[in-house]
Amino acid sequence: MALKSWPDATQWIAALRLAVPALAIVAALGFLAEWFVWSPVTDMTALLFTAGILFFVPALLEELVFRGVLLSWLTQLTPRWGAWLSTLLFVAWHPLQALTVGPPWADMFLRPSFWIATLILGIILSHIRIRSQSLWPVILIHWFAVLIWKSLLGGPFY
Q1: Does residue 147 contact residue 157 with C-beta atoms inside 8 Å?
Q2: How far is CA 3 from its chain centroid?
Q3: Residue 148: is it exposed, middle or buried by C-beta count within 10 angstroms (0-12/13-18/19+)?
């Protein structure tokens, strides 16, 4: 149902008012921990291809799982703690992914500073999802954050 719901302009503005400062904090943390470094990608063909892939994985897939299915289910089980549990599972997913799949960026996913950034993003995305009753703002914010990381801030680019 949350995929069928498109937020109105007021909900989009509210989502951006939360997301922009949170992403600024994540960026500051990334630069301080040195897993963000200014390094723009110059191959526009590869960038467009990667942008398309990143929309589906991780943005759409992770948001469907963590802010779609899990958040909905957990908030029904425990309204007070559902968003926190979903967020903690989102944070735990990243090091688990690094240890099992071993992607090129596995080292970053094992850094505590990255976990803090993921926690900040997860809290904000959960709040936006609950308030907007839609997955679209969180999908697009997640996509934008990963796209900026990979295209401008030295994230692994494949």
Answers
A1: no
A2: 17
A3: middle
Q: CA nearest 69: which of 140, 4, 135? A: 135
User: Which has the closest alpha carbon to 146: 21, 50, 78, 32?
Assistant: 50
The residues near 117 (Cβ < 8 Å, ≥ 6 apart) are: 26, 29, 30
In a structure prediction context, what are the per-residue pLDDT tens digits for the chain, which is 158 residues long?
788 999 999 999 999 999 999 999 999 999 999 999 999 999 999 999 999 999 999 999 999 999 999 999 999 999 999 999 999 999 999 999 999 988 878 889 999 999 999 999 999 999 999 999 999 999 999 999 999 999 999 998 76
Widest pairwise Cα distance in the chain = 47
Burial label for 109, CB within 10 Å (0-12, 13-18, 19+), is buried
- Rg (C-alpha) for the chain, rounded Å, is 15
